[in-house]
Amino acid sequence: MADVRGNELWAWQEQEANGSWGIIAALVPGINSVAPLVLRSYHEIQKLTPIARQHAESSGRQVRLAKFTLAETVTRVDW
Asked: 65, 74, 69, 60: which is closest to 23 by C-alpha?
């Protein structure tokens, strides 16, 4: 998987009533559990587009795909 990098995260988000952006959590096929729609792979997060679209339609909220990149390291643990 060439598109997986440790310093990038992709997340489906919804705009909340107060204008802030939250992470969408949904039942994810394959794991049969509710999980936040956050992945390291752009290719894999694209596969969750139908879930994000369904969330937008059912909630009436704006939905976006966001890319987060490492800006700083807050804590590092070296064993």
From this structure: 65
